[in-house]
């Protein structure tokens, strides 16, 4: 399992672009994780699935509520990662009002989840291999804070916890 001090895995996630811009064509676009995290402070949180109850009513909304505070504390980007496809992640982000604030990144084949060792096997529930619920603070591609949830919990990977840890970490590193 990935640990504090480890570099993010060099895998590709997918992100749906709703409008064509000079840097992004319309539709799903690859996001190389290491490149995308380079040179910035990222608040990353992962959920077992888009549109699922806890993810939709508490986890993602918490990061939206703390968006301005996270940004004011130095976070350049907030990433939400889930084992879903880019179309689903985009639709969920639109439904939640997250698009334009939180990067909704699809890990459709669970490559990122496997590479981090943070998988959750929900095959018995008909959901297959998913991502565990967690959050991390990533500086220039290096994990600085990691909060992994126990089964069915949302106690340590919420936005309030990560924001408090970010403030503490920032005070320590000056």
Could you characterize what this model shows?
This protein is α/β, with parallel strands linked by helices and 174 residues long. The chain has one domain (12-173): Glutaredoxin. Helix content is 32%, strand content 29%. The chain is built from 6 helices and 9 strands. The chain has helices at residues 33-37, 53-65, 67-72, 86-96, 111-116, 159-173, and strands spanning 12-17, 27-32, 41-47, 77-82, 102-106, 119-122, 128-131, 134-139, 142-148. The strands form 3 sheets. A 5-stranded mixed β-sheet has the order 5-4-3-8-9. Strand 6 (119-122) and strand 7 form a beta hairpin. The longest helix has 15 residues, at 159-173. It is globular and about 45 Å long. The model has no long low-confidence stretch (mean pLDDT 92). It catalyses: a hydroperoxide + 2 glutathione = an alcohol + glutathione disulfide + H2O. Residues 2-168 form the Thioredoxin domain. It comes from Tepidimonas alkaliphilus.
Task: Just give the CATH class.
Answer: Alpha Beta
Number of domains: 1
Mean pLDDT: 92
Structural class: alpha/beta
Strand/helix succession: EEHEHHEHEHEEEEH
CATH architecture group name: 3-Layer(aba) Sandwich
Query: How many strand elements?
Result: 9
CATH superfamily descriptor: Glutaredoxin
Active site: 55
Function: Thiol-specific peroxidase that catalyzes the reduction of hydrogen peroxide and organic hydroperoxides to water and alcohols, respectively. Plays a role in cell protection against oxidative stress by detoxifying peroxides.
Pfam family, one: Redoxin
Catalytic activity: a hydroperoxide + 2 glutathione = an alcohol + glutathione disulfide + H2O
